């Protein structure tokens, strides 16, 4: 499982998708199941602050 942190700072959805694709490629390069690995987008800081939004507590609970 991969947690992409600081997603709250990025406004461009395409950029987040690009980062996720690159992480999956790196996982595959090192013989991990990149295509099958769950990727959770979130913000650890937002979760600590109690933010109930998409990148806050929900993302950490999805882990």
Automatic annotation (TrEMBL):
Domain of life, per the record? Bacteria
Which InterPro entries does the UniProt record give?
Answer: EF-Tu_GTPase, P-loop_NTPase, T_Tr_GTP-bd_dom
A Pfam family: GTP_EFTU
One Gene Ontology term of the molecular function aspect: GTPase activity
- Tell me which EC number(s) this protein carries: 3.6.5.3
Q: What class of enzyme is it?
A: hydrolase
Any one of the GO CC terms: cytosol
Q: Which UniProt keywords apply?
A: Elongation factor, Hydrolase, Protein biosynthesis
The chain positions of domain Tr-type G read 2-48
Put simply, this protein is called Elongation factor Tu
Q: Which organism is it from?
A: Acinetobacter ursingii
What taxonomic classification does the UniProt entry list for its organism? Bacteria, Pseudomonadati, Pseudomonadota, Gammaproteobacteria, Moraxellales
Which gene is the coding source of this polypeptide chain?
tuf
């Amino acid at each position: 499982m991969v947690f992409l942190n600081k997603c709250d700072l990025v406004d461009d959805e395409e950029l987040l998708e690009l980062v996720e694709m690159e992480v999956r490629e790196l996982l595959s390069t090192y013989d991990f199941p990149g295509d099958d690995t769950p990727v959770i987008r979130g913000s650890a800081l937002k979760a600590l602050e109690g933010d109930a939004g998409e990148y806050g507590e929900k993302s950490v609970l999805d882990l």
